[in-house]
Amino acid sequence: MKKQILLLITFCSMCIPGFSQSKSSITINGKVIDKSSGKPIAYASVKTGNTGAVADTMGNFRIAVAALPATLLISSTEYEPEEVTVNNPDKITVGLESSAKVLNPVVIGSTKIQGKLLNAPVSDEVLGKSDIINSPKSPYESILAKKGLDVTVSSITYRTYSTRGFNGSGSSRVNQMMDGMDNQAPGLNFSVGNFIGLTDLDIESVEILPGASSALYGPGGVNGTIILNSKSPFRYPGLSVLVKNGITDIGKKQRNKAGGYYDYTIRWAKKFNDMFAFKIGAQY
After folding, report:
1. What is the pLDDT of residue 146?
2. What's the CA gap between 156 and 154, in Å, rounded?
3. Cβ neighbours of residue 137 closer than 8 Å, sequence gap 6 or more
4. Alpha-carbon distance values, 147 to 82, 116, 144, 150 (Å)
5. Following CA atoms 236, 238, 253, 144 in sequence, which dihedral angle do they give, to the nearest 10 degrees?
6. Phi, psi of 138 (to 5 degrees)
7. Quick check: is 19 in a domain?
8. Count of domains for the chain
9. Do residue 188 and residue 270 come from a single domain?
10. How confident is the model over 156-181, as pLDDT tens digits?
11. Are 90 and 113 contained in the same domain?
C-alpha cells in the first residue's frame, strides 16, 4: 500500500511542472493584410521557432509563444516574407508587400493558359480597345494591316486567316483563340473565323503573334496565332453605342470590300450578381 501511494505522489509531482509551463505561454493575436490595398491575406503562414500557425480567410491568426519579446516570420504566396518583433500580446497587424514586381510572367503552353507575353519566345503585337474603337476600320481590317497575315472572305460572317506567302504543302491557317479557347476545339459550336465578327464595342484587345507560336499553343500555332479577348459583362455592364465614319442616318449601311463592317454598333450587358451576367451586341 505504501508503495502505491509513493508512486502516485511521484507521478503527480511530474505532472505539475508541465501544467505550470503550458499556463505560462502567451498567445499573440494578429491579422495579415496586403500592404498596398489593406485587404486581408488568407492562409498566410506564421512561424516562431518550432511553432507555426495559419491565418484564416480574413487573415486573422493566433499563435502561442513562451515569452515576450517574440519574433514572428510571416509569409504567403506572391508576397515578400516579413519578420516582426512582438513586445506585447495586444493584437497586431502585419502588412506584406507583393512580390509580383520581382516575378517574371509565365506562359504555360501545354494547357494554353496565357499570361502577359513579355518573355514569350514569339513576336507580339497588341490592338487595344481604343485602337479598335478609334479606327475607321473593322477589327479584321486592322488585323489584315499587320504584316504576314491574309484574310480570305467567303461570306459576310465567314473569314479564314492565313499566313501570307505560305508555300508549303500543309495548312496555312492561323490559330485563333477567343477568351482562351481555340475556336476549332470540339464542342465549341461556332465557325472558324467567326470570332472576329464580335462587335467593336465587345473587343477588349487583340493580340497577334505573326510568327510561329507553337511554343505556346502546340502544332496548331505553327503559322501564328490571333488572340481575342472580349469584354466581360461582369466588368463592363450597361449600354454602349458606337458610330463610325460620322454617318448620322441610322438606316444607312456602308460595307467595305470584304463585307461585314457596319457604321453603327450597340452593346448591352447586364450583371445580376457575382455569378451570373450576360451580354448582347449588334452592328447596323
Report:
1. 53
2. 7
3. 145, 261
4. 49, 22, 8, 9
5. 0
6. -75, 165
7. no
8. 2
9. yes
10. 444 555 554 444 545 666 677 777 67
11. no
